[in-house]
Amino acid sequence: MRNLTLLTDFYELTMMQAYHHAEVNTGRKQRAIFDMFYRENPGGSGYAVAAGLAQVVDYIKELCFTEEDIGYLRSTGVFGEEFLTYLKSFRFTGDIHAVPEGTVIFPREPLLRVNAPLMEAQFIETAILNIVNHQSLIATKAARVCWAARGDRVLEFGLRRAQGPDAGLYGARAAMIGGCAGTSNVLAGQLFGVPVRGTHAHSWIMSFDSELEAFRYYAQLYPQTCILLVDTYNTLKSGIPNAIKVFKELRDSGKPIGQMGIRLDSGDLAYLSKRARVMLDEAGFPDAFISASNDLDEHIIAELKAQDAKVTLWGVGTHLITSKEYPAFGGVYKMAALSTDGGQWQNKIKLSEDPVKVTNPGVKKIFRLYDSKSGKMKADLIALADEELDNTKDLTIFDPIATWKRMTLTAGEFTVRELLQPVFENGVCVYPEITVPEICEYAARERSTLWDEHKRLVRPQTMPVDLSQKLYDLKQEIIAQLRS
Fold it and tell me: Would the pTM of this model clear 0.90, i.e. be above it?
């Protein structure tokens, strides 16, 4: 991974210099806790999927200012030599806790918690948001698309429409975490160990004198994965009949063959897939699959499934890799506590006229509560770091804004899991290396703990994300103090 140290907003550096100046002149050393969280699920979803942590780890490990970096900063005329000298030995020395990649997440809960010297904690804000916001957005979009497909395989085909190489590469990675079965992105396959898939384009057909000749040549070369694009000229009168001819020739050749199928890339996919299914079945190929592409998203796929389309493999490109309907995740990074010269934490809060923008103070953790019988999620509880939960006792939780909304979980009928895991301790990475396929398996288990009501594409049920009584009381106390 390349060094991304200067992948930051300019004001992070001007604030750093101001912090450094104050520390040098007062001798006061400050340590801060920042939370990264988001306020609203993207696209009206009932949940989101965390992704990007591995790239955050790489970024933190490589964090340092080169002589070239320092020379560039000097050229701006904004930074003094004392500060630039400090940057020469700059490294991250703090602690980071985060939810594992692939975890199902909800608004307002800290996905990532930084505890570090103030300058360090402040500086890494922009890169963390850039990495986690993008990948969590695409992973969430992919999860919605895959849910709409109802068990059919979904392939990510969006590289050529992504907003640049990085978005295409890490978008493909995130799409796999969200549930896709493969990607067209060869570099993603190499770097992340995920399946790469693809067939051929219309130009392949057009480069031959006839469609049948193009199909035959392709089938001879790839008898194990013979998937033919049938809509270059006329899907029902030419494409599918010619594909059937080639499938029969393959079958009669006596050579080992694999799975055969067709791809539809235009037209009424519901109607064409139904007609194709009949034609393939009548020709003796009931196992030949039908794949489809053409500007698909979760809503179109859901509609096609409702119309009993016979598609079982979906190639989703532009709408997935760009999250076209909702192109930003909206994660933020806010200070939650501050300590001076190693003293006790001073809890911090950001107030706003908009209740959803009022932050939660203090050093926090997340408890996830599950139904003991079904294993499904019941709620998330944001609590202070020194709190513990006892599932041998009844637990009553309440909405932190609409406090009259309460739920009591009966002793023994729920289980508890703490989400935030240590990633860095004193600047040293303690998080195990996990492959993308392993993350994908974990993410699939995570999504299986959601109720279908929370997966709905339109107006899903909201998962309760409540504050512990202790955290709620602390928040109200601080708000009262600030208001007075």
Answer: yes
